[in-house]
Amino acid sequence: MAATTHTLRAKHRRSRLRTLAFLSPWLIGFTVFFAYPMISTVYFSFMHYDGFKPPTWSGTKNWTYVFESYPFFWPALRNTLWLVVIMVTLRVLFGLGIGMLITKIKTGTGIFRTLFYLPYLAPPVAATMAFAFLLNPGTGPVNSLLEKIGIPAPGWFNDPSWSKPALTMLALWGVGDLMVIFMAALLDVPREQYEAAELDGATPWQRFRYVTLPNISPIIMFAVVTGVIGAMQYYTQPLVAGKVASGVIQGAGTAFEPGYPEHSTLTLPQLVYNLGFQRFDYGSACVVALVLFALSMAFTALLMRRRGGLIQAGD
Fold first, then answer.
1. Euclidean distance between the first and final Cα of the chain, in Å?
2. Nearest CA to 122 among 184, 171, 169?
3. Average of pLDDT values for 86-109?
4. pLDDT grade for 3, boundaries at 50, 70 and 90
């Protein structure tokens, strides 16, 4: 009996070790690339640390400074939320519309698919610089064309009221990734469901609402969640657009304050870089990074819960 018990324990031990061996790549990656950075970020958010001297305990001073004294936090938060709500929504709608349009085209589908997808392959810095040139208020061809047809020319990246819409236009120009995803989802919708809806006398809008949307809703949720995460990490395009529009040439010994014009393009990721690597205030940078992480988690949880509620309602 004792030998049998010992044998069973040995088998269970070997099974646990085997399972742990299979999980070890994920556990190592999770620990090194998520758990350790997260714990370190929380730790340094309560420290005064400039990257040169050893960190010293400062309590909640970094948190108080960011939320109450640092003048750029709330504008950056508002801009980031604006991009999450407006830019992500328009990208999803535009990508879905382009995907539906191309699936309806009978001839030249490959050409149109390539034309709409190519902008997505453009490097972010080059694409932003090209847009800043096209939308230049004084010499840009877009404003020149608008003036010729009698439409008031906006200031685009030089106007606080138009800077975020200009960034949104840049994001819509590179919507090829969503177009391809939605095309695949639309082509996967069973044709017999459309045929049954047509036999029942459903209008095109009813077919879209009751046939297309339920079938592609997981893809829409994927596009929204990844879009929200991408907007929370939006850094390169607003920074490059602000630099180009302001005409500032950054050289050795100079520091560019992001957010031009009037902090209208300032985002939370830019704030993390500015605080951590330009001002050497790593504690405050960690506070902003934790706020960014909390917002991403909250948006994702809200969207997933909304998705679960829609599924239950459909059932």
1. 53
2. 171
3. 91
4. low
pTM of the model: 0.86
Q: Which of 34, 62, 90 delimits the end of a domain? A: 62
Decide which of 39, 62, 85 is a domain's last residue. Answer: 62
Residues 28-67 as b or e (16 or more Cβ within 10 Å = b) = eeeeeeeeeeeeebeebbbbbbeeeeeeeebeeebbebbe
Residue 39: give the domain boundaries: 2-62
Tens-digit pLDDT profile for residues 192-205: 999 999 888 889 89
Residues 241, 301, single domain; the answer is: yes
- SS3 percent helix, strand, coil of the chain, rounded to 5, is 75, 0, 25
Tell how far CA 304 is from the center of its chain.
16
| Nearest residue to 164 (alpha-carbon basis) of 233, 271, 258, 87 | 87
The reported pLDDT for the residue numbered 307 is: 65
**Which tokens in the block code for residue 21?**
């061996």
Quick one: which of 258, 292, 249 has its CA closest to 278?
Answer: 258
Q: Are residues 181 and 275 in the same domain?
A: yes
In 31-60, which residue ranges form alpha helices assigned H by DSSP?
36-44
Domain presence at residue 67: no
For residue 2, the SS3 value is helix
Confidence of residue 249 (pLDDT cuts 50, 70, 90): low
Tell me the per-residue pLDDT of 124-154, one tens digit each, with 9 for 90 and over: 999 999 999 999 888 889 999 988 888 888 9
CATH of the domain at 309: 1.10.3720.10
Are 238 and 270 within 8 A, CB to CB? yes
Domains in the chain: how many in total?
A: 2
User: In terms of domains, do 45 and 120 share one?
Assistant: no
Taking a C-beta distance cutoff of 8 angstroms, is the pair 131, 141 a contact? no
Asked if 57 and 47 count as a contact pair (C-beta separation under 8 A), the reply is yes
How far apart CA 93 and CA 268 sit, in angstroms, is 25
Above 50 in pLDDT, residue 314?
A: no
